[in-house]
Specification:
Shape: elongated
Distance between the termini: 33 Å
Structural class: mainly alpha
Helix content: 55-70%
Number of domains: 3
Radius of gyration: 36 Å
Strand order of the largest sheet: 2-1-3
């Protein structure tokens, strides 16, 4: 179904009437010929994207808003509300990231709790086995009931006294070994806990807001690039910011001051790809 027909079906049947019949008119620009196929297609994708965003269908919403943005950039300068389309797209992307990030964080917490329980259970089992082993050694090496000595024969009593000193040495050795094993067991458990924390910390890093690298930001607006263009001087700017400068301030590069005309700028595809890669891995950067 063509986007225009989809837009009509969604907007009139599933959304407030105030959205039905909405007309996409570029803010601060002249009204174009409404019969223009490019304008109609851009309008259809834009409004359908907004409608899907209202229904919290973020994936489909972003697809249509991205299509509207691409079509808008393909028009003549100032003909389309590229900035406003971008803002709606950024809103959709950020909201989608929030939903997905909350889901991932919940899953990670549940997995972390389950893993901790298993590790704790394993530690307690080994600790219990170690204590049982210690108790068995004590039963084997001594702590004999003094009352039983009176029932022993003379030979048994003599043998008992001869054994007393070696038994104590054996007990001390066993106790030292038990303490060493306990220390090792506890140390290993703590190391595993630290490793687990590090793994989950790294796994959650993309969902924690940070700083956008300077090379991905326009030197004039200081915002992350949306449509980066490069000048003959080798400086990259946000297209709308640079064109506004050339129109209102003068025909020269804002930084190098070299003479510059709008037709001399070209898309910086390398930076654009870098921005898209960064945004795909750090959805929080869509927040405006």
């Amino acid at each position: 179904m063509p986007p225009k027909m989809l837009m009509c079906c969604v907007c009139t049947n599933a959304f407030p009437l105030s959205m039905a019949g909405y007309r996409f008119v570029p803010k601060g620009s002249s009204i174009l010929d409404k019969s223009s196929p490019l304008l109609q297609e851009t309008e259809a994708h834009y409004i359908l994207g907004l409608a899907l965003l209202e229904r919290e269908q973020y994936h489909d919403a972003t697809n249509h808003l991205e299509k509207a943005l691409d079509l808008g950039r393909g028009g003549s300068a100032g003909s389309y509300m590229v900035e406003e389309i971008w803002l709606e797209l950024a809103k959709a992307r950020y909201t989608e990231w929030q939903v997905e990030a909350a889901k991932r964080q919940r899953q990670q917490r549940e997995l972390k709790d389950s893993l901790f329980d298993l590790m704790m259970q394993d530690y307690e089992n080994k600790l219990r086995d170690l204590k049982l082993e210690s108790s068995t050694e004590q039963a084997q090496f001594g702590y004999r009931d003094p009352n039983r000595v009176s029932h022993l024969t003379d030979e048994e009593v003599s043998a008992y006294h001869i054994e007393r000193h070696p038994v104590k040495e054996s007990q001390v050795t066993a106790e030292e070994r038990r303490k060493a094993e306990l220390f090792q067991l506890t140390g290993d458990f703590q190391d595993r806990l630290r490793t687990m924390e590090e793994v989950f910390d790294k796994a959650g890093a993309p969902d924690r807001p940070g700083e956008v690298p300077d090379y991905l930001c326009c030197q004039i607006s200081m915002d992350i690039f949306r449509d980066p263009v490069i000048t003959p001087s080798g400086v990259t700017y946000e297209r709308s910011i640079l064109l506004e400068h050339l129109c209102k301030v003068g025909k020269f590069d804002p930084i190098t001051r070299a003479t510059l005309h709008p037709e001399q700028v070209a898309p910086n595809l390398a930076v654009k790809d870098a921005v898209q890669t960064f945004l795909s891995q750090n959805g929080w950067a869509y927040k405006m």
